[in-house]
Each structure stands twice: as structure tokens, then as C-alpha cells.
Amino acid sequence: MAASTTFWEKLGFRKASGVSEAGWGQTLFAGLISLIYFLPVLLIIITSFKLQTEALAVPPKFFPTTFFGLIPEAYVFTPTLENFTSVFSRAFTTGAAAQSTGFDRFFFNSMFIAGSSVLLALVIGTLAAFGFSRYPLKGNDTYLFIILTTRMLPAIVVIIPIILMFRIVGLSGSYPGIIFLYTAFNLPFTIWMMKSFFDELSPDVEDAARIDGSSELRVFFKICLPQVIAGLAATFVFGLILTWNEFLFALLLTGVDTRTVPVAMNQAVAGGGIGVLWGLLAAIETLFLIPVFLVTFFLQNHLLRGVTFGTVKR
Q1: Among 92, 101, 173, 175, which is least packed by CB within 10 angstroms?
Q2: Has residue 202 been placed in a domain?
Q3: Tell me: the pLDDT tens digits for 298-308?
Q4: Which domain holds residue 260?
Q5: Number of domains in the chain
Q6: What are 268-302's pLDDT values in tens digits?
Q7: Element (H, E) at 48
Q8: What's the rounded Cα separation, in Å, for the pair 123 and 113?
Q9: pLDDT in tens, 199-219
Q10: 98 found inside a domain
Q11: How much is the pTM?
């Protein structure tokens, strides 16, 4: 048994396998880099528990009262849940009664629109990707490039014709309109991602299944699809993040009943003449992070396999 392992076991710790493989130096370096990237998010979460005066305090208050006595008082704040309750119900003017802000509906809209559009793009894009991978057409690469170019255009370039089309067909402010639009913009990414996963599969098993009498649908659903679950998970997460954070289309093409959280956040910017309500804004952002964090956490094993597919063998 290695001496370092014995040392840690004497202290009551069991050395993690990842640390054993990478070494403490690389592990600490990776942890430091991760902390640097996570620090802005951590500051947002901390700010969400502060009152307005503490959020604007100089010097900044980074530690809750739990650390009082260990940390100088100037850097300690009193945690509060007031910002989180104010997200859903608060008084918009001084002395007025608390009213619903509608954020419960906005969070539902974000989850419903993002989830529906990504799932729809995943269904259509996976079928298309399988076709491009297994039944290439003449000029297959050209078609794929044309599909990809639709995703290259900045949103600001296409927003005017899209608004005009939405008004003509009556889709402005409706769920189907914004869902179909997000689906269209997620399709190129989905097709290219899933095609790369199907290209990595060996066709030998599929040919053997066809010889045994399996139909093309059975080959797709029973043989190919189970092998690209990791790809489906990775594509779903990336597509969800892109749609979840989208602002411009949601700002101009959704109505009062279909408004998403990124658009509704501007309600928290004006603080009734006292400036930006940073604690309230941080609370909204903290709640906004939770659904994507949970999806990524539960799909992390598939996600890791998905982003390394073709480079790491099982």
C-alpha cells in the first residue's frame, strides 16, 4: 500500500480514485480553476441572501453571521429569505399592498417552452441525423452545410422578417409560435451533433439485424438508438441551455401570458427610485439556475460520455 494512502487512512479519509489517478497537484489546480469559473455564480447566490444595504456595502460582505467572531464584522452579513419571497409577491410602490409578480407563470413558461422545443428538435433532428448518416444523398455534405448556415446567422439579422411572418400568420405571443421557432433554431445543432454519434457506430450489427429480418424502424429503435443515449443526453443539455438563456426572440415574440424569465427580469431592475434591487435580481438568477443545474446533475454521467464520444472507448 502506498505511503500517501496510508497517511490519509490514518487521518480518517479515503483517497478518491480520481485523486489517485491525477495526483494532488493536478487535482488542486483543477479545483482552483473551477473555483475561479464558479466565483461569479457564487457571488450571485450570496447576494441573493442579502438586504439591499448589505448588497451595496463597501467593503463587500461575503460571509453570513455564522462566521461572526472568525471574520471581521465589516465582512459579515445577516442572511435573509426576503428576496426569494419578493420574487413572487411584493409591493411595487412604497406603502402599497403586496401583489403577485407573475414569476410563477414566467418560470412555467421558460420550462415549458424550452423543454418542448428541445424535445421536439431532438425527435426530428435524431431521425434526420440517422438518415444523413446511414442513407447519404448525392451532395450530402452540401445539404449539411446549408443546414448549419441557418444556425450561423445572428438572431438580430433575422428578427425583422420573423416578426413580420409571425404577425401575418397570427403566431405572435403564442406558445406554438415561440416553440416552433426555437425548434427550428435547435435543429441544425441537433442534426450535426447526433449525426456525429451515429457515424461512430459500427454498421455490422445493423447489417446482421437486417439479415435476420429486422425492419429499418426496428434497427433504428432497438439497435442504434440505445447506443446513442449519451449523445441524446448531451444534445438535450446543450440545447436546453441555449434555449433557456435566449432573450431577443422571447422579448419580441412572446406576450404577457407567454413571457419567459429572461424577459421578465427587467421588472426587477427598476427599484422605485432607489436604483437596481441587486438582492432581488440575484434571487431571480439563483432560482433561474436551479432547473438547468438539476438536469445537468442527473444527466452528468451520460453528458460526460456524450462529449467524449469517439475519443474514449468503453
Answers
A1: 92
A2: yes
A3: 888 777 665 56
A4: 103-266+289-307
A5: 1
A6: 665 555 567 888 889 999 999 999 999 988 888 77
A7: none
A8: 16
A9: 888 888 888 888 888 888 888
A10: no
A11: 0.83
